[in-house]
Amino acid sequence: MQALSTSTPVAVIGAGAMGSGIAQVAAQAGHQVFLLDQREGAAEAGRQSIVKQLQRRVDKGRIEQSALDALINRITPVNQLDDLASAGLVIEAIVEDRDIKRSLLTSLEQVCDDDTILATNTSSISVTALGAKMKNPSRLVGMHFFNPAPLMALVEVVKGLATSDAVAQCVYATAAQWGKKPVTATSTPGFIVNRVARPFYAESLRLLQEQTTDSATLDAIMREAGGFRMGAFELTDLIGHDVNYAVTSSVFNSYYQDTRFLPSLVQKDLVDAGRLGRKTGQGFYNYAEGAQKPLPATTEKANSVADTLIVEGDPGPLAPLVKRLAASGLNIIERDGSGRLRFGDAVLALTDGRMATERAAIEACNNLVLLDLAFDYTNTTRLAIAVAGQASEQARIDACALLQKTGLAVSQIADRPGLVVMRTVATLTNEAADAALHGVASIGDIDLAMKAGLNYPEGPLRWSDNLGFSLVHTVLTHLQQSYGEERYRPALLLRQNRFAGKGFYS
Ligand code: NAI
């Protein structure tokens, strides 16, 4: 199906943050755009906010003044629905209220041509439900942009039960022509991104509640070792805790209170206190003028007399770390084994989702020190470790000294199953696998959505494949055993992959 021709006018209803951004995107692509808002002067204000945005780019020499003038001339503020009659695509970005959106959509049906596509930018309302009162719901599709729309590449094209394939395909092709990265999703709560991302916040919040370490250290681990742009606490401070908590609660309630999506009391407390993040000057962090952001906890420099690293068997995902350690001038001895590393008194291993203390007891290896996952062990600047309760102080020192030889900042955290990055990646993968199993979107589109919508360093399903087909399943199984909760039960697809000996992409 072809994209809309740029000679087809596009209408945007609602000239708030999203509507103005979407109008800008459509005008940038060359369409004539009608911008409508029920608040007097709001459409013109929306147009002016676009001028302001783009003027900065003109001032920096990134675009020509003439391009800005031409673009702005393509955007026409209008006052009534009748003015939108010639549009071939109408995108509504009005208030997030089912009944108000429904009423607008039925009114649009009376004004627009029969083949005009009606799109909704809703982030949480069922597209199926929005179409239910329409004469022809097959022409309604979700076109879910992310904020700020001109900058964020992702557009979720959301199909309701009645949405025609041709309409979804046309909107997909049009979004691609506008320079976006579209993905197709069925209309299920949270669509792709707002559903699959829940564990990113939930696991950090739980680790904080369990006093694993402080928020600055958890954020630093997620950023530096996980490769995420921001940790969960700095990100939710930016999004606003009211907004983030509302999305979590909405997904939780929409899935009939499935405990996998359980909101966090830690976050509710912030909402109750009015500590909504940057916008109120206080969230997890203090944004008052002159306030210093706390530094992450870094284990102090350790000294060890050991100079030989014993690598027992295939280190698996730790192989790049072993290479990095070898480059720091250590003697390396390789021998058979199960992937452990030995240095002085320390026995190091990648977390498999069990607490170090539990695994040390089961494997009769008192001096066990578990390493967290890093997105890129070659370049990570920080790594979290957990030390078994039975381990000697010398084992702890040797483990820290070993890692510090490569310049790594070591954050020793309390002994919790799956540490930080590993349990986050495992639970993200789990949610993504469920979404794929339920036909919400394809495996490729889920990964693309998480990368383009949230700047994740890798899609969770590809990431899981890269770790080896069974590791994430093992981590989740152990997390489930530790907590006894449904929240960590491995998704069927992961289980199937594990027994088939293959990954999501193989
Ligand atoms: P906003 O509050 O900034 O703007 C909404 C605009 O719609 C206001 O200017 C309001 O006057 C206008 N409006 C309300 N009812 C109207 C009606 N019946 N007819 C014409 N105009 C009407 O809201 P925002 O943030 O732009 O969100 C708009 C939509 O986009 C919502 O459905 C929201 O869930 C969705 N969305 C929001 C995102 C965000 O980060 N803010 C991200 C993705 C989707």
Give me a quick take on this structure.
This protein is an alpha/beta fold. Helices cover 42% and strands 14% of the residues.
Annotation, overall tally of beta strands:
15
Biggest sheet strand order reads 3-2-1-4-5-6-7-8
At the fold tier of CATH, the topology name of one domain is Rossmann fold
Radius of gyration: 26 Å
Strand content: 5-15%
Structural class: alpha/beta
Largest sheet: 8 strands, mixed
Shape: elongated
Low-confidence stretches: none
Task: Let me know the CATH homologous superfamily of one domain.
Answer: NAD(P)-binding Rossmann-like Domain
* Known CATH architecture of one domain: 3-Layer(aba) Sandwich
Helix run count: 20
Query: What small ligands are held by the chains?
Result: 1,4-dihydronicotinamide adenine dinucleotide
- First and last CA, distance: 29 Å
Mean pLDDT comes to 97
Descriptive account of the structure:
- This protein is α/β, with parallel strands linked by helices and 506 residues long.
- Among the domains are: 10-187, 3-Layer(aba) Sandwich (Rossmann fold); 308-412, 2-Layer Sandwich (Transcription Regulator spoIIAA).
- It is built from 20 helices and 15 strands.
- It has helices at 17-28, 42-59, 65-73, 98-111, 127-131, 165-177, 193-196, 198-209, 215-225, 232-239, 241-254, 265-273, 319-327, 356-362, 393-404, 421-437, 443-454, 460-466, 471-483, 492-500, and strands spanning 10-13, 33-36, 75-78, 89-92, 117-120, 140-145, 154-159, 181-186, 308-312, 331-335, 341-343, 346-350, 368-371, 382-387, 409-412.
- Helix 13 (319-327) links the parallel strand 9 and strand 10.
- Helix 8 packs antiparallel against helix 16, helix 16 crosses helix 18 and helix 16 packs across helix 19.
- The chain is elongated and about 80 Å long.
- The relative contact order is 0.09.
- The protein binds 1,4-dihydronicotinamide adenine dinucleotide (NAI).
- The site of 1,4-dihydronicotinamide adenine dinucleotide has 24 residues, from helix 1 and helix 4.
